[in-house]
């Protein structure tokens, strides 16, 4: 069993070693090179992905033809396109590695079988979804109520790892800024 994933799961639910082995058996490991796609627009998302090492971006191409980053995924995070996954429709999103990345994929059939065998797995994913939803709400609240500089400073204070691992132009996209605006903010004294 992947130790990182086992620690992650045990933060949210009580689970035995044998149940963890069952969970682990449902996963497929995959390695991605930097800039390699895990999902491209037009394809159907078939799995939830746990990132054991690396960094991914989830984005779409906006009407101006620019990448608009919706979400990042770092070590010990889950990432997927839930709309495509749940409805089995072509994705409008891309999931791409920012750096060499290792993931564990949990496909739909394995997830459903796992939930039948271990009902507590549904609880795990409910907790993950609730936490993700709260984070998304807070992001929207901050985007609508803080100035650009306040938004950047708040985000970096809460997520210092991002400043070290995410290229600034990608961070600008995620925060809804131009790279030039972010450069001006960063040039100011704290």
UniProtKB/TrEMBL annotation:
<dbReference type="InterPro" id="IPR018490">
    <property type="entry name" value="cNMP-bd_dom_sf"/>
</dbReference>
<feature type="domain" description="Cyclic nucleotide-binding">
    <location>
        <begin position="11"/>
        <end position="114"/>
    </location>
</feature>
<dbReference type="InterPro" id="IPR014710">
    <property type="entry name" value="RmlC-like_jellyroll"/>
</dbReference>
<protein>
    <submittedName>
        <fullName>Crp/Fnr family transcriptional regulator</fullName>
    </submittedName>
</protein>
<dbReference type="Pfam" id="PF00027">
    <property type="entry name" value="cNMP_binding"/>
</dbReference>
<dbReference type="InterPro" id="IPR000595">
    <property type="entry name" value="cNMP-bd_dom"/>
</dbReference>
